[in-house]
Amino acid sequence: MQVLDTPLQDVKLIQPRRFGDSRGWFTEVFNTSSFSKAGLPSEFVQDNQSFSLKGVLRGLHYQLGKPQGKLIRVLSGHIWDIAVDLRRNSPDFGKWAGFHLKPCNEAGNLELLWIPEGFAHGFLVLSDSAEVLYKTTNPYFPSGERSILWNDPTLNITWPLDTLDGTPPTVSDKDAAGRTFLTADLP
Asked: What is the predicted pLDDT for the residue at 153?
């Protein structure tokens, strides 16, 4: 397994090693020992899976009280995945990074994204549909759930909206009512 740094401190791209032959391929996506040796979390408490159509934008989500680290894998389709550092003591506080995630990257490698606790997370579906599977380090905690507006002017995230052919993204009512970065309850 290869663990790659990203522009945000502690956010990592993970490329599991794949073994294949004429029958297909096999990979170990998660292994407690391998993750622990790489300095990644080795315990997850919940798996979530979503299916979304093109143009669906989910986020920017985070939890207070029981923050979730997320290990994200795209099973089908193509998403633009965003991580925003909300850790006040981080040199990257208020910065974001975006990642094109597909089942395999351009080089043919499987790729997972690790976003630690203390980050907001969201994604935009760029393909006709996408299935996303992610493991979390804490369970869903409804009273701690928060959302920052996807188009917050302070964060100024560059979403690839041009891929939607002029159609605005589809956002849930809850996400549309998110707070701005400057007024959000931050960890």
From this structure: 97
